[in-house]
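pasting for ref
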Amino acid sequence: MSHPKPRTLRLSEIPTSVDENQLRQYLNNLECETTSVAENVLALSLAPYIDWLVATVTFRQEPLIFTQCRPHRIMHFELPTQLVGPRETGTILVDCDFYGITPLYHPPGLQEPEFDVIAVSGLSAHAFGSWKSPLQSHVMWLRDFLRLDFPEFRVLTWGYDSNLKDSTTTNSIMNFSRQLLTAVYGARDEHEVKHRRPIIFIGHSLGGLVIKQALVDAAQGNSENDKTILRSCVGLFLFGVPNRGLNNENLLSLVKDKRRAPFVHDLMEGSQLLHALYVAFQRSYKGSLKSCFVVSFFETQDTKTVEETPDGNWRRSGKSVRMVTQESATWFMPEEDVHNQIAIAADHSSLVKFTGRAGPNYLEVRQKLRELVKKVPEILLDRENNSTLNVATISYFMIPFSKNEQYIGRSQKLACIKDKLVGGGNRRLALWGMGGVGKTQDVLEYIYEFKGSAISVFWIHAGSTMNFEQDYRKLAGLVGLPGQDDPKQDIRPAVKHWLEGPESADWILVLDNADNILDFFSQDIDNGESINGTEITRTEGLAEFIPRGTKGTVIVTTRNYELAGNLADVDVLHKEKMSPGEAMQLFTKQCPTARDFKQDSAISLLLEELHYLPLAIVQAAKYLRHNQVISPSRYLELFQKTEKELLSIPFSDPHRYANRETVIATFSITYRQVREQSPLAFSLLKLMACIDRQNIPHELLESSLSDEFEDEAMICEDEISRSEAISKLINLSLLTAVERGTAYEMHSLVHASLDAFLSSIQEMDATVEWSLRILNGILPNGEFENWTTWNLYLPHAVALTSKVKTESLNSATILYNMSWYLELIGRFSEAEHAAQRSVTARISLLGQEHTDTSNSISNLASTYRNQGRWKEAEVLEVQVMETRKRVLGQEHPSTLTSMANLASTYRNQGRWKEAEVLEVQVMETRKRVLGQEHPDTLTSMANLASTYRNQGRWKEAEVLEVQVMETRKRVLGQEHPDTLTSMANLASTYRSQGRWKEAEVLEVQVMKTRKRVLGQEHPDTLTSMANLASTYRNQGRWKEAEVLDVQVMETRKRVLGQEHPDTLTSMANLASTYRNQGRWKEAEDLDVQVMETSLRVLGQEHPSTLTSMANLASTFWNQGRWKETEELDVQVMETRKRVLGQEHPDTLTSMANLASTYRNQGRWKGAEVLEVQVMETRKRALGQEHPDTLTSIANLASTYRNQGRWKEAEVLEVQVMETSLRVLGQEHPDTLTSMANLASTFWNQGRWKEAEVLEVQVMETRKRMLGQEHPSTLTSIANLASTFWNQGRWKEAEDLDVQVMETRKRVLGQEHPDTLTSMANLASTYRSQGRWKEAEVLEVRVMETSLRVLGQEHPSTLTSMANLASTFWNQGRWKGVEDLDVQVMETRKRVLGQEHPDTLTSMANLASTFWNQGRWKEAEELDVQVMETRKRVLGQEHPDTLSSMANLAYTHKSQSRNDVATAMMEQVVALRSRILGDVHPDTKSAEKALAKWKQEEYEETDDDDDDDDDDDGLIAEFSDILFCRLDPT
């Protein structure tokens, strides 16, 4: 077996008598799979090792004998006698692992090497393969390049089993280092030891760590071998050594053997072991390894990480990462020469794979080796001269706390501490952060690493000068300084002097809880001013006793950033809160019983509530540990209710100071310091205790420092002092600057403990009132121009007013303005609560009739109005109006405003007459009192116009609106917001009249002006965009409408919020646009979202919620999901009846919608009852000629038409049309719809000429008014085509059908439902002309598109299948017809029900198919079932019932039951003559059949089959009938 890549084998224990050339020749002649291989040996080395020779050999094609050599297995091989000689044994060892020492090169002859080069490979790497060329696998630079450039070197590799996947050994750096030392001892004979031959170590990756650990082990050993290796080691060449850890986290997931997992952990970033190795190696380097020449090489390219393949192997196919960063590879010694930090353009694996001697990477290595060779004499001399300086010292460990075994390691923070403390000289580091965040615990964990080392540790409690002095005296006693027992002697200078002197050796001094800056630095305090001055005098204070000099480390923990900066000369590290994972670990360690509850979610929520603050977590965990009847979820409930009380409960912790064992106690220490040191800063704290803790505006803090608090003169006009007061709190970790210093935030536990502290010193109530005064001076009213301010201050106003125990005028005013703002942003419930409190406060403080009290009551009424609670609003508005009439007078502006508000409430209740009376009164009074052109007068005219518009009195509304608009233009200017509003109102009136072009012109003008004057995102601008979108929608310009709808929705989401009523309205509008485009799924998604949000935010009975439910019902209706539609329709109707009243316009609309749903289910009686009720109520409430009244009459006519009661339908439709012509005008959209409806009734009666006249008139008018491509125009063209079709004028019908279809494809899209309908109509026309193939092509396309777009069970999909069946029927393809008929029938039975008219039609169609196949029994069974059901459901005389009787007569006739057939057909003729009239096509068809039967009793009448076979045939397109499906949005 041959190997795809040549591999290198090691041949060991070769007798020294073997010659290299002879060995090469012998190996060349070994048998291979291919015998023709010449010069099979690619590379061969032969070098002495102890008492024999060792060879490395690479073959072109591996000899067959060596294919047996496998990893982890040594092979025995016999060399021939002629090669080894008669006296030597020829048995050698062959392996491919290269474990242990492998000599690669030895100077030739008897020449002694001058240097030993020992190379150690990396993790899971091969001792030989790691160093091979990536291009030529037989070239290996250690063997092949160094022998040429450094012939005086002896080159060896050392291999070890660090394989993570298959190794059975227990890996650790310690184990490997001991093995390496043993191997090096064995490789160097007495001569080498005696003459101290210099050693150069070369390490790659893990190999470098093993070399470092081996040198540390040697430094700590006492044997001569240890000393010799240390004295001989002159150089370290380290390639990609992960001194700070590997960046390869996925290794952990690959290592499934738990024995090797700790080893991998030790190699990861942040490893404790690597840091300990770093510290230990520093000591060795400064001692025995002094002057060692170190070169660090680092990679500049990313390496693919290892992944496990499906077959269980590992492969480098993962994401690319920088396996060892430059910082990690060069983190060797603080004094390392940066010139010996060399970048190599390779990834981690290729870092030591050099392609050739002339390659730049190898040349870099060669140059550094040459530098080292020159420096060796100097290195050895320097070591000789300094060999006697190693002085043993005593180390001390003075710490007040035991090691915290429950410490949760934050490796990054510890690593950061270690990084900052690297280097020589005196080092100082400060760890700064808020109280309880775990600073002390981090330092404690770090310090315990030095226990038992040569470094002394002294822990000083620096929380006060007394604590500091006591601990310094302990230190003096520990080290035996004179004067330690004399209480009169200041021991601090002596301790400082000792620490700076040589006797103390290396040390770490911890200054814990150094929080009070006055203790450390004396400062000039003038007349009680802030002590935060920039000039700090350092002539006294504890800082004078902190040692400096050339050695030692000082670590400070503090809450005071200013103090941290003054004490630390290395850096200030910010100590942040724990991560959620660390917090969970700490909690479960402190409270093991918490695991029993299995309530991780409750614990997680609790930890989040505690903001992952370690002190708070420990406090909570210990409480739960000692109160085991309380679960974490119960504790969370208690904490949210009694936060301050729980934070005050003390607990015991051996790793904390006794007076700092609760959160509140910890923070109270800081508050007292602030109170004593900076009254200004303390006043800020008091304010912040009353407001929200987040996003505190800088302006608010400035205002508080410029205000007067109680009797204290706290006004501070000095900006520097104000800034220093704020900085003081930031430096103490009580406050954090955000948003680039324009705002601040406070930790929640700081906030809670501050509240507790102020309550404990009886200052909370006075502080609340002072804070109310400050906030009241800042907060404006709630109008849009003030929203930016309110958006910033609302949380603070809510928090502050929640702390009020006794209302004041300040709190009442804030609540009044807050309710104003909350109402405008759609948060009605919160607005109501604030308004109610304001009303109660002002009634109590000012009295019932005060103007401010009336304003508050009016505000409360407004919140009721916006929630649809019009009765409650009315009661309050009447109260306000009567009070103002009595107090201010009948004609006072405020009185008139209250009357206008009451009128608005009437308008919302549909009480337009009452609204009109009030509005006329307000308008006339304002004209007389204020003048014709006063803004309030114009507003009252606009309100009256709105009422007229609601009554359908559009001409009167238009007259007023034009007058208002023109006056405002002249008085206020073209671009005034009120002028623009009047233009928008006029546009709305035009829209109501179907004058869309005029509406569009005004709306575009309003939108553009508002964008320029008010801004793109102003609510009024967005409203104008929504209005324009509505006009586009009315014109069928749905793409343009959609663009605007989306823009409005997204802007409102961003500006007003996801749940604002206006945002929900814009979403509903977009859904409506989708619905018009037949994109019902998208519409449904939006409708559901709007409904669910409305239910949650506004409540079940809010008018907007009910509208959203009606909209969703409409979307269901369009999808034929009538059961779901009905459920929603009934719910909306019943709720509106209860909430709004039986006769409210919205209630009547919901009744009409339900009637429409009944109509579609064929439940015409139910529809009729509702429609009559709606019609009669509208006649009485709105008047005979109101547009809504006319719509309800049209709807009733439609129901009559569906019942075949065409005469009754005609009477109503003529009435609607004539009224519309008189009231709305000839060209109004509703007038045209009424004409189309009448034409439909004529059409059903076979009066096609009359239908044609009306349809042509409608079509021509729509073309002129709406345009050629408007959806309504296209509908009227399609209706006319249908009339031509019924008259057999198929060419004319076809021309119109093609025109409609092509236009709809272009305008609406290929898959729009209306486009599909027009394609079906054209197919029907083809069918009538016998062009069945063309019809089939269209119908298949319609059916497939319907299936994909609408779904299998949609009514239109089923109709398309029936139409295709009809075309098959005409071609006599009965099997295909039957399959489709059965599928349609079964689906309709399941979806629509057994008795639905469409179900019965499909049964009749299937009967017809059976009839044509001569399966008369089956046809008869279905015909009878259809006829009997129609008699029962539709009535004896319904046209469909008569059709089913005619069909059954034909079936009887086909079975030669002539008497029965003739009698039944006579009955059909008589009924049709009476009901439809003698000239109706159906009547004539029946008469003709009957006459034939009487003339020829047995004759078949194939040519004159009854036309009433009920196939779905033509999809008549009378969608002009106005069903009032959608509530207005």
